[in-house]
Amino acid sequence: MKKIVSVLIALACIAALSAQMPPAGALPPGAIAGGMPKATDTSAIKRKYLDLAYATASKTQTLDIYLPEQGNGPFPVIVSIHGGGFAFGDNRGAELAAALAGLERGYAVVGVNYRLSGEAIFPAPIQDVKAAIRFLRANATAYKLDPARFATWGSSAGGNLSALAGTSGGVFELSDPGSINADQSDRLQAVVDWYGPVNFLTMDAQFAASGTKGQTHGTADSFESKEMGALITSIPEKVALANPETWIDAKDPPFFIQHGTADPNIPLQQSVDFANRLAKEIGVENVSFEAILGAVHGGAQFETEANLAKVFSFLDRYLK
């Protein structure tokens, strides 16, 4: 109960911070003014496997594997899922840098590409994430990975996919029946969700309730509508399939969730509600939630050494 109460206390900060909110429509993490993602420099990493195809439906379906410089494994695995509104970005963007800090802590890090909304609509992105997880398990020995210790870590749209992969383990409806590794499990042992959208249909109302002029989601040209293939309010049943809350059950892995109190893109309440619902099913002790005071949609407050230490402390607890 203490963690749930702390969540509610954090909400009291929202009203005070709303006057300091950055303009609506701020760029997702990893983007620059021109809309092109920044790249993470991985040239110094010696042990890596790049552009591995985990499926055959699209050239987009590739991943990169980075291994620690020391040791022969098998290494616990962090699957990094990039953001970008389901519309842009790739597995070598700026967001990868946070996960790569795990190399020095003995983790293998995998950057996953998935089909974006300009190529394929939902459920393609989550099918791709699951296909990548299955590919990694099927080839764990070849790449020195431990198939029993997998976590996802995503931010923004990647946070949604990370959370959805966590709650929908084994769910047939979100798996590609043509997967070449269909015999492998897609279940996770831990999930990190940074400020991911959860329930697409409630975000606009949550911004309105908090007095925040945030990004609008319930329009035909929103990131979420483009990902779903139609105006989200016109297809509530399909939108529910993309909501990680839909699939919550007692078998779900532990979750670590962080969200900025001044996020102008995704309401803080999305993560608050999600954390509370998870706690009811998997136990408060298995849900770590933090509202980061004054933080926006990503940025330096998430990437400090102290904050990354929190993330890795969580991962160490469940993967080591």
Question: What attributes characterize this protein structure?
Answer:
8-stranded mixed sheet, Rossmann fold, 320 residues, globular, 8 strands, 10 helices, alpha/beta, single chain, disordered N terminus, 32% helix
Total DSSP helices = 10
CATH class type: Alpha Beta
Helix content: 25-40%
Strand proportion, as a percent range, falls in 15-25%
Architecture per CATH nomenclature, i.e. the level-2 architecture: 3-Layer(aba) Sandwich
Query: Tell me, what's the shape?
Result: globular
How many whole angstroms does the radius of gyration measure?
A: 18 Å
CATH superfamily: Alpha/Beta hydrolase fold, catalytic domain
Q: Write down the CATH topology.
A: Rossmann fold
Number of strands: 8
Distance between the termini: 27 Å
Number of domains: 1
Instruction: Please summarize the sheet with the most strands.
Output: 8 strands, mixed
Q: Taking all residues together, what is the mean pLDDT?
A: 90
Care to describe what's here?
The chain is built from ten helices and eight strands. The protein is globular. β3 (75-81), α2 (96-100) and β4 form a beta-alpha-beta unit. The chain is of the alpha/beta class and 320 residues long. The protein has helices spanning 2-17, 96-100, 124-138, 157-167, 203-210, 223-228, 236-241, 268-282, 300-303, 305-319, and strands at residues 48-53, 62-66, 75-81, 108-112, 145-155, 190-194, 255-260, 287-292. It has a single domain (2-13, 46-319), classed as Rossmann fold (3-Layer(aba) Sandwich).
